[in-house]
């Protein structure tokens, strides 16, 4: 673990869901202090008790207040409402949005239109006193939660407008064995990365796998 992350607490809002729980598991395994947030503090505490490492469970508000780096892994339907509620607690923090605005029908997953351009841009519009970074959109929750897998074979595209913040989140991604954090451009390009998750879901359905991404020649 790099010195820049040492001693920092990672809060995961929506930490009882598959993606949030999986990220929390991997961060805790790397030695980081982790706080799970949920609408129900009791449910968060129950989930935290099942994850090895220094993991606590709190309400979303208390988790947002406790975290140095805060990951947003909530359902798209409640994304804007929750961030508006938590904006004061998130002021001054690096907020990592990994929400994918997707719809599903008989043909499979598809990207939804977002007025602001992407979930990450919506977060940035709401959290004007925080630094928003987009990351962890395309990582399989199944893989993250599999205790038999010591390494996660994927890269994580990190998007943002603040170099110090994107460097920090790249370091955070890279604490997970097998993962590299790769700078993927400005926040305005987050919609492409969020939408790509629909393609990966289609890949997984066809090939019965848990596909991830690798960036070559970097």
TrEMBL record:
Signal peptide: none
UniProt keyword terms in alphabetical order: Oxidoreductase, Plasmid
Transmembrane segments: none
Domain Pyrroline-5-carboxylate reductase catalytic N-terminal positions: 9-101
NCBIfam families associated with the record: npdG
This protein's name: NADPH-dependent F420 reductase
Gene (name only): npdG
